[in-house]
Each structure stands twice: as C-alpha cells, then as structure tokens.
Write a structure and sequence with these properties.
The chain is mainly alpha-helical. It has one domain (3-46). Helices cover 75% and strands 0% of the residues. The chain contains three helices and no strands. It has helices at residues 3-18, 22-44, 49-53. The longest helix is centred in the middle third of the chain and has 23 residues, at 22-44. This is DUF2273 domain-containing protein.
C-alpha cells in the first residue's frame, strides 16, 4: 500500500468517524479523502506543492 492509498484510507476513516452518517457526513468523508490523496501524493513525490502554488521568489 503506497502513501496515496494510505492517505486516502486515513482520510475516509477520519471522515466517517467525524460525521456519523447523512449527506453531510458523506461530504466530509469525501473532502477528507481528497485531502488524504493530496497528502499521499506529496509524500510519494508525485506532487510538488511549490509548482502548484508557485514559489515566493518567482514573483
């Protein structure tokens, strides 16, 4: 299991634990799962946040 999969799983579990059901719970789990995927991609080196948000020195 790579970091992206681990991050997705952790985000989804936290989302389900934070919101026990309903449409709001579904949305929270979805958002936390997406955050988990982003964190996993950063850890795996597949995503460089400096390129996404731009570097401060490039302005």
């Amino acid at each position: 299991m790579n970091a992206v999969q681990t991050g997705l799983l952790a985000g989804l579990i936290l989302g389900v634990a934070a919101a026990a059901g309903g449409f709001t719970g579904f949305l929270i789990a979805l958002v936390l799962g997406a955050i988990g995927v982003v964190v996993g991609r950063v850890v795996d080196g597949e995503l460089d946040l400096g390129e996404v948000f731009g570097r401060g020195g490039d302005r």
